[in-house]
Amino acid sequence: MVGATALLPSCGEAGSAIYLGVQDDPEGTEGSTVATESTAPAPALTDAHVVVVTIDGVRWQDVFAPALRAELEGAQRGPGDLGALMPRTRALVAAQGVALGAGGDGCGIVQTASAANISLPGYLEIFSGHATTCTSNDCDRTTAPTVLDEAVRAGLGPVASISSWPQIDRAVSRGDSGVLVSAGRFEWPAERPAGSAFAALLDAADAADPFPSTGNYRPDRFTAPIALQYFREHSPALFHVGLVDADEWAHRDDLVAYANALREADAVIGQLADAIAESEARDRTTVIVTTDHGRNDDFKDHTSLRYDSSRTFVLAFGARVPARGVICPTRNHTLIDIAPTIRVILGLPAVHGSRRGAPIDEILR
Ligand SMILES: [Zn+2]
User: Fold this and answer.
1) pLDDT at 81
2) How far is the CA of 121 from the centre of ligand 1 (A)?
3) How many A from CA of 57 to the centre of ligand 1?
C-alpha cells in the first residue's frame, strides 16, 4: 500500500533517522491506508479557485513551534522579536483553516513521498500527485500532465505558476497545455504591455542580482510582487507562487536571513489573502501552503532518505476548509496527496494508479 505507516515512527521517536519513502503498491489500489474508509467529499464549488504557495526547504518546526526562536536566542545571532515567524499565516489558519504536520503522540505527519528530499522531486510530487523516481534537481521535465495541465485541459483558467527557481518549470507543467509558467528570470511567457506597472516589475526582476542564489534565479522580493500583480489582474483558477529564498539562506547557514525569508513569505501569503478577500472569487478560493522538503537536524542542508529532511507540512485555509487550526491527522500524509486534494476542490477527475496520493480529507468539507 501507499503510505507505509509501519516504517514511520511517530514524531520525535528515537531511532527515526531513516526514511525510505512510500512503498510500491502491488495491488494497484490508489490512495493510502485509510483513504478507502473515508466518505466521499462534497462536490466542488462552481468556479472554485485554488492558490498554492510553496516555500522551499522550510522545517516543519519553524511553522509550528518556536524552535527557531530558541535557536536564534541560543546562538545570540538573532535580533529583536523572533517569536512570530509566520503570524499572519498562523492567524489565517486558526480562523479559517487547518494545519497538518505538527506531529504529536499518535498523530499523522506530512513527508515527502519518494524520500529524495530535494527540490525537483518534491515539486514533481506536489504537482503530479505521483511518487517520483527522480532523485536530483537535474531530472527532465515531467512527461505526465500535472494538476495545472489538467486544470487548463478541463477549461479552467487562467492557470499560472510564478516562482523564483528556474528549474521548477520542469515540475509544474508538461509544457504543452497553456499553463503560464514564469520560473526564475527567463523571459515572461506572455504579452508584456509596454509602460505598464506590471512591465516595470518584470524589468526590475530581469535586472536583479540573483543573490542569495546564482544564474537565472529571481529572488523572492521580485517574484512576489509579480505574482501578486498577476493574481489581481487575472484571477486565476489555479495559481502557484513558489518562494525559495528560505532554502538558499539555509544553505548559506544563515539562520537570521532564513527567518527573515519566512517572515517575507508570511507577508506574501497575507497579501494574497487580502487580494482574495477583495476579489469576486473570495468565497470560492482555497489556499494551500506547503514545502518541497524539510531540513536535516543541523539546519544547513537536506539529504535523501533522512527522516528529518522528509518532514514537511500542509496548511490550508479558505473555501471548503474547516476552521480547526492545528490538527492531529489520523494517518500520515505525503506530498503526493496535495494534487488529489486540488483535483477534488476544482472538480477535476481523480487519477488512479500505484504510488499515487489520495485527497487529504482533513482539508475538505
Ligand atoms: Zn536546498
Assistant:
1) 40
2) 12
3) 6
pLDDT per position as a tens digit, 308-357 = 999 999 999 999 999 999 999 999 999 999 999 999 999 999 999 999 99
Q: Which domain holds residue 248?
A: 5-363
Q: Is the peptide bond before 212 cis (omega within 30 degrees of 0)?
A: yes
Distance of CA 259 to the CA centre of its chain: 18
Distance in Å, CA 120 to ligand 1 centroid: 10
The total of other beta-carbon atoms located within 10 Å of residue 73's CB is 13
- Residue 201's nearest CA partner among 238, 239, 231, 242 is 231
Number of domains the chain is built from: 1
Q: Ligand 1 centre and the CA of 138: distance in Å?
A: 13
Alpha-carbon span 234 to 282, nearest angstrom: 14
> How close is the Cα of 118 to the center of ligand 1, in Å?
6
User: What is the dihedral angle through the alpha carbons of 328, 329, 335, 336, rounded to the nearest 10 degrees?
Assistant: -170
Report d(CA 204, CA 253) in Å as an integer: 28
Q: In this structure, what C-alpha cell is assigned to residue 251?
A: 544553505
- Nearest CA to 240 out of 348, 107, 97, 339 is that of 339
